[in-house]
Amino acid sequence: MRVTFLGTGTSYGIPMPGCDCAVCRSSDPRDKRYRTAILVEAGGRVLLIDTPPDLRTQCLAHDIRYLDAVLMTHAHADHVFGFDDLRAYTNRMPGPMPVWASAGTARALRRIFDYLDRPPIPGTSLARIELRVPDGPFEFHGIRLTPLPAAHGRADMIGWKIEHGGRTLAAIPDCKHLPPETVALCRGADLAVIDALRIRPHPTHMNFEEAGAALQQIGARRSLVIHLCHEVSHAQAADLLPTGMEPAYDGLRIEF
Question: Which among 51, 241, 250, 254 counts the fewest CB atoms within 10 Å?
Answer without folding.
Answer: 254
